[in-house]
Amino acid sequence: MNEKATPFPFPDSGLLEFPQQWAELRGECPVARVELPHGAHAWLATGYDEVRKVLVDPRFSRARAAEHENRRLTPAVILNSSLIGLDPPDHTRLRSLASHAFTARRVERLRPRVVETITALLDSFERREKPADLMEHVLWPLPATLIGEMMGVHPEDNQRFIAWSSMALAGPERLETATEGYENLKAFFGELIAEKRKSPGDDLLSALIEATDEQGRLTDEELVALSVLLLVAGHESTTTVFGTFIVVLTQQRPEQWQHLLEHPEDITRTVEELLRTTHRTKVGARCPRVTTEDVTLGGVRIAAGEAVIPAPDAANRDPAVFAEDPERIDFARAENPHFALGAGTHFCIGAALARMEIQEGLRLMLNGCPRLRVAVPMEDLRLTPGTPMRVLETLPVTWYVSRAA
Fold first, then answer.
1. Would you identify the family this protein belongs to, as annotated (predicted)?
2. Tens digit of pLDDT for each residue in 11-48?
3. Nearest C-alpha neighbor of 367 from the set 392, 331, 402
4. pTM as predicted
5. d(Cα 246, Cα 95) in Å, to the nearest integer?
6. Does pLDDT of 403 surpass 70?
7. Residue 21 domain-assigned?
8. Which residues make Cβ contacts (< 8 Å) with residue 221, sequence separation at least 6?
9. How many CB atoms lie within 10 A of CB 331?
């Protein structure tokens, strides 16, 4: 790599804006050389076809990127652990142990419990003094409660693991905080695993313990790391995007909120378009890969051992795939093959559950709080500092309570 490198990541553009540099790079050089803050160089893929290749081609290795000398390429310590830091066959072995709990059919059976949880949270929320923080009282506890129940976590421990998860997802500039959060989560699961070995339950963690003890399909270390990852991934991403969705629908595009009040059947399509256009991380990119052999990507020759960073947020706005103004949020968009939930072997294992939580959450908010509005000016909304996730610190809202017949 001898040509000049572009500094990366790009400056943060705010909650709803998308950095112009993405479109410029995608149009001029969909595979570009970039220089990272610590001085290392990598390739940044921004075109749809290029990003898809990085995500699905096994020559782009997550395990190589998670090795010691490459760990700082990844924006959070926890993202180098367990499933996210593995390639097949180890990745396949571990993922298969958990994936049965997240199939579309099994997730559909959870719908009554999802609705019950959201209803209880909203009922409690609506009794609060206005304005109230939707993040604290609804959007954080919703996915945390559900994934906690699936894993067999005691409800009284939810607040602790939410706090530790946020610490574990701290950026590389807060390595001590990230490490402390991750170690706390590992210790927490070490104790819970010991408890469930004595008294197993009808939950995912007990099933994973059985796979460890009776079937020998994973080690104790793998069991703890997988449990931590499932718990963190099972609530952080959902909370992150859901908060932004509410801001878009009530502030930026209130006509769509009104449309959904009259046409709730369009909630699914609305969620997919919001997934496409909402950037989940502050840098707009995902976990890097390292090539296992020489590869040609977008006409660029990449040598074995070089780092490649896929940027799904940029690919999701590629006009070659998303025609008719891909920068615009188009709630009537029929075809939506976005990468918001990944692709290939690392496609989000909890995608069906996350979609259900958001869809049912929107439906019940529209039904119960049709006049939900953000209670502060847009410029007063702040992203949580010190984390690569684009998650709101708070979301103060006001509302008018109604109940559909």
1. Belongs to the cytochrome P450 family.
2. 877 788 888 899 999 999 999 999 988 888 999 999 99
3. 402
4. 0.93
5. 32
6. no
7. no
8. none
9. 18
Strands 41-45 and 60-61: unpaired
Which residue, 102, 65, 77, 133, is CA-closest to 288? 65
Q: Tell me whether residue 197 is in a domain.
A: yes
The domain total for the chain is: 1
Q: Is residue 297 part of a domain?
A: no
- Determine how β-strand 300-302 pairs with β-strand 6-7: unpaired
Is 22 inside any structural domain? Answer: no
Residue 373 belongs to what domain range?
A: 77-281+323-398
Output the six-digit token pair for 236: 């952080």
- Cβ neighbourhood burial of 176 (10 Å; 0-12, 13-18, 19+): exposed
Give 74's pLDDT tier (boundaries 50, 70, 90).
Answer: low
Q: Write the CATH number for 334.
A: 1.10.630.10
Distance in angstroms (rounded) separating the CA atoms of residues 47 and 381: 31
Amino acid making up residue 173: E
How would DSSP label each residue in 227-269?
Answer: HHHHHHHTTHHHHHHHHHHHHIIIII-HHHHHHHHH-GGGHHH
- Specify the DSSP element, H or E, that contains 91: helix 90-99
3-state secondary structure 297-323: ECCEEECCCCEEEECHHHHCCCCCCCC
- In sequence order, the 6+-apart residues with CB closer than 8 A to the CB of 118 are 138, 142, 357, 360, 361, 364
Rounded CA-CA distance 366/165 in Å is: 29
